[in-house]
Amino acid sequence: MKKKFIPKPVGNMTRYLNYTYPNSFFTFLDENKVLSCSTLSSGLTVATEQRNSPNSCVGIFIDAGSRYESSLEYGVMHFFEHICFKGTENRSKSTLEKEMTATGAKFRCFTTREMVGYYAECLNECVPMVVDILSDCVFYNSFQCSELEIQKKIVYSEMLEHEEDTKGIVFDYLHQAAFQGTPLSNSILGPSYNLHNLKNTTVARHIDKMFAEPRTKFVCVGGITHDQMEELGNTYLSKSKKNTCVGSSPYRYTGSELIYRNDSMGIAHIALAVEGPPFHHEDHLKLDLATAVIGSWDRSQGGGQNNTSHLACFSAGSGFCSHLESFNIAYKDCGLWGAYFVVNQLDVDDMVFKLQREWIKLCTMMTDSELLRAKMQVKSNLLAKTENVVGACLDIATSVFYSGCLANIHRRFTELDRITLNEVKDTCNKYLYDKCPTVAAVGATECLPSYVRTRAAMNWLRV
């Protein structure tokens, strides 16, 4: 009888740094999962993960977003979300709704600064019908004028709701400050005057320019083979359209601050970030580990001062901070790494000082046990994200979109295990130590340190 591995409780977790996973563990994770990726003659990229599952998630992901929009087009791709499933050249709105209901599928879409996605979760036998509907809605939309006017009112209401989302506003400010003067600073919603002047011809022209096969990723996760997806791609997504060369404007990072002071709020919402590596860069994964070391915390969580993160323990014990969230946002050619927190009006200075101190400690004083916990957390998050077909589909789409390749769980875990403590320290020193930060804040920011002082705190005087 095979002896079961049961780790003994020890005070020093570094004993497990060199622990080798049993083969059965990866066999269980990758069992009956076949990853495939190919490019059709039309330029369409097809990526699949075949697994034993009664349902599938299939999606069309395109290289488009607010980064590729002109000053008169800001908000076009987000607006297209609202009219995407409202009628096509081949199906009226009522017919389309009946067919979508008949499949029993859940249709969804999203827009980011660099990518748009239209996907659906359905039973395996409904995948061809769902692909037909998705391709018809995305590539052959009717752009009805009456529907555009209805959706304008809905989008305007969404803009008003966004103004109440303080966290969303802070991250918009963060991009505006960090990438000022470049399209990457634009919000996906766009300005209200663009929405008011938006015409169906403007939307149709932008869609026709951006939605070409070489810019499109066709992704499916579930009980469908790769050959079947290639056949569906050739049938429904090959428009034989000449590709339009569309490039993204180069980014430019600027260390700066953008602050909206409103003392009536009583609290301050602050984001502090530095320039990070792009998604496909080898340093991106190392900064993911640094993000896990800083950690996240919220007053509603349990644990109090028993959190593994030093900053979370400080937040829970001092009562300064009610919410803490570290982030690592990556794009094609750049990124933002930092933390967002909500703090009391009179404690802003102390919280900023403590956060920067923890950042400098990442460069000089990180321990093996902290790195081990970070690796475990990143692996756990990866497993949670890919356990269902929808999460796995979005994960594959992101990987193919930014890096052009696929990697199974075993390979990604191995890459994590190979990262050493010194490599993480060197990476943090490269992107954090003595670098110009970007500050975005909304609320009671009276006690927020000046930018000169914040910049000076990005290093320690060492002898």
Structure description:
- The protein is an alpha+beta fold and 463 residues long.
- It folds into two domains: 31-236, 2-Layer Sandwich (Cytochrome Bc1 Complex, Chain A, domain 1), CATH 3.30.830; 257-456, Metalloenzyme, LuxS/M16 peptidase-like (Cytochrome Bc1 Complex, Chain A, domain 1).
- Helices cover 43% and strands 18% of the residues.
- The protein is built from 17 helices and twelve strands.
- The chain has helices spanning 23-30, 76-83, 93-103, 127-139, 145-162, 166-178, 192-197, 200-210, 226-236, 283-294, 310-318, 348-364, 368-386, 389-403, 409-418, 421-431, 451-456, and strands at residues 34-39, 45-50, 55-62, 106-111, 116-123, 216-222, 257-261, 267-276, 297-298, 321-330, 335-344, 438-443.
- It has a six-stranded mixed β-sheet with strand order 1-2-6-3-5-4, sandwiched between helices. Strands 7-12-8-11-10-9 form a six-stranded mixed β-sheet, sandwiched between helices.
- Helix 2 (76-83) crosses helix 8 (200-210) and helix 13 (368-386) packs antiparallel against helix 15 (409-418).
- It starts with 22 loop residues before the first helix and ends in a 7-residue tail after the last helix.
- GO terms for molecular function: metal ion binding; metalloendopeptidase activity.
- Its cofactor is Zn(2+).
- Pfam families: Peptidase_M16, Peptidase_M16_C.
